[in-house]
Amino acid sequence: MIGKHIKRASICAAAIALWQAPALAECPDSALQSTADSFNALSQPGTDVAETLETVDSLIEVCPNDPHVLKIAAITYASAPSPDAETSVGRLTTSLNLIYRMWDNLDGNPTRYATDQNGKKVLIGFLDLYEIEKQMLNGLLQAEQISGVQSTFTHPQEEEDAGAECKPMDTTMVSLASTWIQQQGDHPGAYSLMDHMIAKCEADLADPRYTKMLGYRAKAMLASIQRDPGQDGALEKAAQAKVDSERFVELFGGYDNVGWLKSNDLALEQATAAAVMANQTFTLSRELFLPPQLGSPEAKHALALMFDKAWADDAEDGLSGGYKSYRELVSTAYDLTKSLDAPAPARQMLFEAAKAHADGEVRAPGNESLEPPPDFLYKWVKSAELE
Q1: 121-138 burial, b for 16+ CB within 10 Å, e for fewer?
Q2: What are the protein's UniProt keywords (predicted)?
Q3: Can you say how many angstroms the Cα of residue 76 is from the centroid of all Cα atoms in its chain?
Q4: Per the confidence metrics, is the pTM higher than 0.70?
């Protein structure tokens, strides 16, 4: 089951005895060892998982602010074998909420020890949290996919953000959700989680600890468009990625190897071009050279992509083919401007689109390395009236 994939993290996987929490006002020193015992019990045949988690719940109730107890309790919930993916969603949601509570009560890296079944002391610290959080969130996203059930962790109620404080773990969650999308594909829970965390941290995004959230979301959107430029919502994702990336650079004061690279700008332009081409409603017609299309960035971009396609079609034949597709496109487009009352602006747009393609500003994925067309193939369309 999904829960089994969480590492045992610094505790030996052998059972000792389960400890039932007494009704004490304060957290007893034995609580950490007892939580570790519950964790270890999960690997033993015949263990009643529900009863073990009830024991963990009682320990959390007695020690609600002990970061060591909370950490091992979170790992125990995440590691508990589940009968189905829907149950895993609930248990992994609990584990991530416990990690958040742990962070709220953690100051530095205080270390304590638990004893394994062989009497050996095992260090319980907090330097391995990123990997633990990664496995928990990835497990949750996987369980959501399998079960079709949405977690309250990835899809929280909006009112939960009221007065909520932005926390460094929020950045970690956005980073991990972005990585999931980049590596494994789109996931509604991952997008929802990123949107939730960024909205929650809106007032703190100028803080470098949180600014990178914008870059992480932009990279997720970019990866999604690159995979499928024709998908529904591709243009909206491209627009959001552009807003996020520009805001990141502004707030962060430049580019960053982790948040957003300068090379990502070009990749986003190319992905946007592919999305426009895949989703465009523009066709090569007289209407393309009339308002409101005339001079619009969208129409110019669409024309540039038409040039890109024609040039790619000619690439294999090269000179021997006489650039047939490209020449026909230029001639056909130019002929469409002849019947216009004012052909000069249309021809200028035609020239600018051809030049944008030739200069490499607009290229579909896979065509970036093609040599540019010689300018004599298109320069002649430029209107002398506008020079």
Answers
A1: eeebebeebeebbbbbbb
A2: Signal
A3: 27
A4: yes
